[in-house]
């Protein structure tokens, strides 16, 4: 029966981890022949298959026009196989089966950006993770089937670049107008890592010699005009290659490494073996066209995809439930790489800020799931902050506990055991345990449970005994789909400070973990426990969860004075920032008086010194949590306007408290040559400009406009433009027009132009209508959609008024055209249930009304979860 024709009997589409079964057939090799034409693409595939277990021979395929199928040379008639919308099934197939298929596909009309698709006028690219390969040909498209791929690509000569994974074996003409190339990838890989690229692109070339002496040709493909913007990515690539050799002992294994940039891409980038495909936003980096933050992101994503070569490609996932095996570990690795690129403290600040702004809210709401879920409907919905960022934190906790040497022994063991295999999270933890000699098995609990643990701590000083005791309790919010929650192992990095001198005390306690990391680390893995320090001469100030040693919500009875003390005396920038954030949360969420905070930031001992020695850290210490983050900390009766007003009032008070400080910074600080220092100065000066406006200093607009016109640096130009536009300065309109004319052919810069206008605090439905009907707005390009939607969502007051229609409309429009992106955008509304009435019921009604209209698994799974609170 054709399921699609009968929507009434909707089968339960949930897939369960517990149902995992080995594939009945493996594929020794696959020969692919992909012939691209303007109006169709022919795909011929030859699979050499071998039976592994009992069962039918199953090939997955979606939207494929089957022309013919042969098994061991004999064409099958229609009654010799079963074909439905998802798979082709052959009963009683021989144990050795050579399966040859010919299908026709339509990349030219593929709007989902999955499988093979047209990504602009002269470019065809693939995106096969997680389940895109089945849209190219019939195949056991699952990560535990590894095979050797040989690929022939053929196209018109007006598309000169023909790429696929591995080594170029052969190239030549295919008739007068057409040409072809044959590539072979010697390493066995799952189909999600297959890639090919057919198009008209320019290339930047370089090379690298590995620690083993292998000479690797490096190539970055992009549009001709963008080649000058590829140098930062190229340097980052070489740096990543060296870093993985030095820190993990992992050299590269092929003779070439290619990166292709496209502006039509659903996510950031993709680690296809030897042929990464990147969103232009994660490759192109240039001070004139992209911001400092974007430059940092390019370097980290280049590293991320490169690091996947070992953590993801050489060792891959057994099934998609194990996604965080490769993503959590690779994010941890790219974060560590970035900590070596700039100030480690600032990198940690930025990573924790992302975790708290995205993962914590996700984990406290209706979309909460474990880093390794045990069921899903649509795997694309699980490329989440929880899988990536919380997954990275689990690895960081184990690394913190082990210290550098033992962690390295553990990863060495992992690569030794599992190279060339498709494995599970259990395998990873087992290898770390065996290699390090430390039993880490209790960390598996973290992978299997949802929710951010609450860590309650209390400190008590006993003057007579000269002891200080910290007692801990942990708890998790109940979750309907994951009962039986257990206590998790929480490494608590901590320090005690002398309250008088500000000196850090030596910790005397027997229950601290011994590792080669200097910090005192206490491993708390019960429901409740305590630790006592001896020889403590006076009531100390404790600092807990240093460097954010575990992804938990800490509730410690710090006084505001303690936090202000830590802001001044903590020995590293991350811990100073953490203290400032805790103080700010007290002000916003517990109505504490702001004066202690204002005194601390305006103290001559803090910022005035730091702005010269570490301007980047100084800029971060001025962070005030976003309205969106504050909202995520409120579980009921949330009033967006009230939060906005409180936050504005505090920022105005900070502006006033520092009097002449801001203008001084703006006029006297100059960006030095060193990039991260310069980045810090630019960040500080942008803050200073907006503080001057808050002080009512009219000269700020002239200074901003002057900067806007004369700078060649995008962070400065955008900082100035924001100040003008968001404050409706007289120069705002001129500046927007000037920006448009200057950058209209630069998509990434134009994304910023759209974003700034959508993020205007007083944007309204007309603003969004103007932007989304602009000739340069394009619903086929996810980056452009995200720039407007992301800008709008920067102001929750707007998200929860006219934004509701915007996001619901997009989810509906993209439901079939691009369900991956549609499902993600809808998540902007996932905390609807926290709103105060009557807004809560109004948004709920709109979400309910969307429900009967959606067709994709992606959007409907998200919507069902969102409404299940
Ligand atoms: N594996 C990619 C990464 O994290 C993620 C990715 C890229 C992806 N494109 C995708 C996931 C499309 C789902 C769909 O590096
Ligand atoms: Zn990844």
Structure in words:
- InterPro entries: Aminopeptidase_N-like_N, Aminopeptidase_N-like_N_sf, PepN_Ig-like_sf, Peptidase_M1, Peptidase_M1_dom, Peptidase_M1_pepN, Peptidase_M1_pepN_C, Peptidase_M1_pepN_C_sf.
- This is Aminopeptidase N.
- Belongs to the peptidase M1 family.
- Keywords: Aminopeptidase, Hydrolase, Metal-binding, Metalloprotease, Protease, Zinc.
- It holds the Pfam family Peptidase_M1_N.
- The protein is of the alpha+beta class and 869 residues long.
- It folds into five domains: 200 residues, tricorn interacting facor f3 domain (Immunoglobulin-like, Sandwich), CATH 2.60.40.1730; 107 residues, Zincin-like, CATH 3.30.2010; 133 residues, Neutral Protease, domain 2, CATH 1.10.390.10; 97 residues, Immunoglobulin-like (Sandwich), CATH 2.60.40; 126 residues, Zincin-like fold (Alpha Horseshoe).
- The chain is built from 27 helices and 32 strands.
- The chain has an eight-stranded mixed beta sheet with strand order 6-5-9-3-2-12-15-14, with no helix packed on it. Strands 17-18-19-21-20 form a five-stranded mixed beta sheet, covered by helices on one side.
- Helix 1 crosses helix 2, helix 4 crosses helix 5 and helix 16 packs antiparallel against helix 17.
- The longest helix has 34 residues.
- The chain is globular and about 90 Å long.
- It starts with 14 loop residues before the first strand and ends with a helix.
- The N terminus is likely disordered.
- The site of zinc ion has 4 residues, from helix 3.
């Amino acid at each position: 029966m054709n399921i699609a024709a009968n929507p009434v009997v909707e089968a339960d589409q949930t897939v369960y981890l517990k149902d995992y079964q080995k594939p009945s057939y493996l594929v020794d090799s696959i020969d692919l022949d992909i012939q691209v034409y303007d109006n169709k693409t022919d795909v011929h595939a030859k699979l050499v298959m071998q039976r592994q277990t009992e069962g039918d021979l199953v090939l997955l395929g979606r939207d494929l026009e089957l022309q013919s199928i042969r098994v061991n040379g004999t064409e099958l008639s229609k009654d010799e196989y079963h074909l439905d919308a998802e798979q082709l099934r052959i009963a009683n197939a021989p144990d050795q089966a050579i399966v040859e298929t010919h299908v026709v596909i339509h990349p030219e009309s593929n709007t989902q950006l999955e499988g093979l698709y047209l990504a602009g006028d002269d470019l065809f690219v693939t995106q096969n993770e997680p389940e895109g390969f089945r849209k190219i040909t019939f195949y056991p498209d699952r990560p535990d089937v590894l095979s050797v791929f040989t690929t022939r690509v053929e196209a018109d000569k007006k598309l000169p670049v023909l790429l696929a994974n591995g080594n170029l074996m052969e190239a030549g003409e295919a008739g007068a107008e057409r040409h072809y190339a044959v590539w072979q990838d010697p390493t066995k890989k799952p189909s999600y890592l297959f890639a090919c690229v057919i198009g008209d692109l320019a290339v930047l070339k370089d090379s690298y010699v590995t620690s083993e002496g292998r000479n690797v040709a490096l190539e970055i493909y992009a549009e001709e005009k963008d080649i000058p913007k590829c140098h930062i990515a190229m340097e980052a690539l070489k740096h990543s290659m060296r870093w993985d050799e030095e820190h993990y002992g992992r050299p590269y294994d092929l003779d070439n490494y290619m990166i292709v940039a496209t502006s039509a891409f659903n996510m950031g980038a993709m680690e296809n073996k030897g042929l990464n495909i990147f969103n232009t936003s994660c490759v192109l980096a240039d001070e004139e066209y992209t911001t400092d933050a974007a430059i940092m992101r390019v370097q980290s994503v280049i590293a991320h995809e490169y690091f996947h070569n070992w953590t993801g490609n050489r060792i891959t996932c057994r099934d998609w439930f194990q996604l965080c095996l490769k993503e959590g570990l690779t994010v941890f690795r790219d974060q560590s790489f970035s900590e070596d690129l700039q100030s480690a403290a600032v990198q940690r600040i930025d990573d924790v800020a992302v975790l708290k702004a995205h993962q914590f809210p996700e984990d406290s709401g209706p979309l909460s799931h474990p880093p390794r879920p045990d069921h899903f409907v649509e795997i694309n919905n699980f490329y989440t902050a929880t899988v990536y960022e919380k997954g990275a934190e689990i690895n960081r906790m184990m690394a913190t506990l082990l210290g550098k040497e033992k962690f390295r022994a553990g990863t060495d063991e992992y690569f030794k055991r599992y190279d060339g295999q498709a494995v599970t999270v259990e395998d990873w933890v087992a290898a770390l345990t065996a290699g390090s000699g430390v039993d880490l098995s209790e960390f598996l609990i973290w992978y299997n449970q949802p929710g951010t643990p609450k860590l309650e701590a209390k400190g008590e000083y006993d003057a007579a005994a000269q002891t200080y005791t910290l007692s801990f309790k942990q708890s998790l919010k109940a979750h309907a789909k994951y009962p039986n929650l257990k206590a998790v192992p929480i490494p608590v990095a901590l320090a005690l400070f002398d309250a008088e001198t500000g000196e850090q005390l030596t910790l005397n306690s027997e229950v601290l973990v011994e590792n080669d990391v200097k910090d005192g680390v206490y491993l708390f893995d019960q429901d409740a426990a305590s630790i006592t320090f001896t020889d403590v001469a006076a009531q100390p100030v404790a600092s807990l969860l240093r460097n954010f040693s575990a992804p938990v919500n800490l509730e410690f009875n710090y006084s505001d004075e303690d936090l202000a003390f830590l802001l001044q005396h903590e020995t590293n920038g991350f811990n100073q920032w953490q203290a400032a954030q805790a103080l700010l949360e007290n002000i916003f969420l517990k109505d504490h008086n702001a004066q202690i905070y204002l005194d601390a930031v305006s103290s001559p001992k803090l910022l005035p010194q730091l702005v010269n020695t570490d301007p980047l850290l100084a800029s971060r210490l001025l962070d005030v949590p976003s309205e969106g983050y504050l909202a995520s900390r409120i579980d009921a009766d949330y009033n967006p306007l009230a939060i906005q007003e409180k936050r504005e009032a505090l920022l105005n008070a900070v502006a006033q408290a520092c009097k002449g400080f801001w203008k001084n910074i703006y006029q006297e600080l100059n960006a030095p040559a060193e990039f991260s220092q310069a980045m810090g100065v630019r960040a500080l000066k942008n803050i200073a400009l907006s503080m001057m406006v808050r002080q009512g200093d009219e000269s700020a607009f002239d200074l901003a406009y002057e900067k806007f016109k004369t700078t060649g640096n995008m962070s400065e130009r955008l900082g100035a433009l924001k100040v003008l536009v968001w404050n409706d300065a007289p120069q705002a309109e001129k500046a927007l027009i000037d920006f448009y004319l200057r950058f209209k052919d630069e998509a990434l810069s134009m994304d910023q132009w759209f974003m700034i206008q959508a993020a205007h605090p007083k944007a309204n439905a007309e603003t969004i209508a103007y932007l989304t009907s602009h000739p340069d707005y394009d619903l086929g390009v996810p980056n452009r959609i995200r720039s407007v939607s992301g800008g709008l969502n920067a102001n929750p007051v707007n998200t929860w008024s006219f934004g509701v229609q915007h996001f619901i409309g997009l989810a509906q429009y993209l439901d079939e055209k691009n369900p991956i992106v549609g499902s993600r955008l809808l998540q902007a509304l996932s905390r609807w249930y926290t709103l105060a009435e009557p807004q809560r019921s109004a948004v709920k009604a709109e979400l309910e009304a969307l429900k009967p209209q959606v067709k994709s698994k992606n959007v409907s799974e998200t919507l069902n979860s969102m409404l299940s609170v």
